[in-house]
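Q: Sequence in, structure out?
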Amino acid sequence: MSLHSPPFLAAVASRDLRASAAVAARPIRLDPWRLPLMLLGCALLLVGAYVVTQLWVPRVLHGQGGTLAMIQFFDLDREGNLPSWFSATLWTLAAALAFGASAQGHADRRARPRWLALGGLYLFLSMDEMAGWHDMLGIVLRRAPGAAGTLHYAWLIYGMILVAVAGLYFAPFVLRLPRYVAGCIGLAATVYVGAAAGLEFLGGKVRDGVLAYPFGLTGFHEIIGEEFGEMLGVIILIHGLIVFLRGNDGRGGFAVQAGARA
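A: Exactly. Output:
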């Protein structure tokens, strides 16, 4: 039989299709502890890189070429660099897990719109991490009449309103989830909002001269606490979502069948 004959080509195509189907059906396994711990390690490395580049690099390199670029690349308080990319990746992973939860066969059909809404919210937060929309909003709001002196970060006013609305909308849904998963989501929200809004509010009041940092802390420590707290909150969320997808108490991993029908 010729290598170019229709029967031979059909056989090759059929074999390739079977191989592709086997790859598509291969389960994707994530461990609810191993992956979050790896992500936590990456977050700690980023904090360490920030400390080194802020305190050590300027003293050693003394303004040599590339020093400023290196500092900015690891700056936790900037957008469009490695830490912001990592934070955006965390939210993207959380969004993918939420979308995956909506498609799981054991998921309550009535809960699927809420999972989709959560996934959309996480995806929006991922884009905000890279684009810095909340900072742009803060600049616009601070220019509004009567806004000066109200809050150093004016976006917090509307941000907390959105947090309250989202909490009221998602709270009944989250409370119907398994207790461990609901606890993870609640803890994640508390850690994230406490770091993003609480520490930023404190920093704003310090800059306005209303308050002072306690225990001898400085703005440097505030940035570390705020940014690491945000990362930690999303990592806790990712752990809870993986536990939900696996459907038990979090030991081991879970498998998602690509192309499987919900």
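Residues 179-207 form the longest helix (29 residues).
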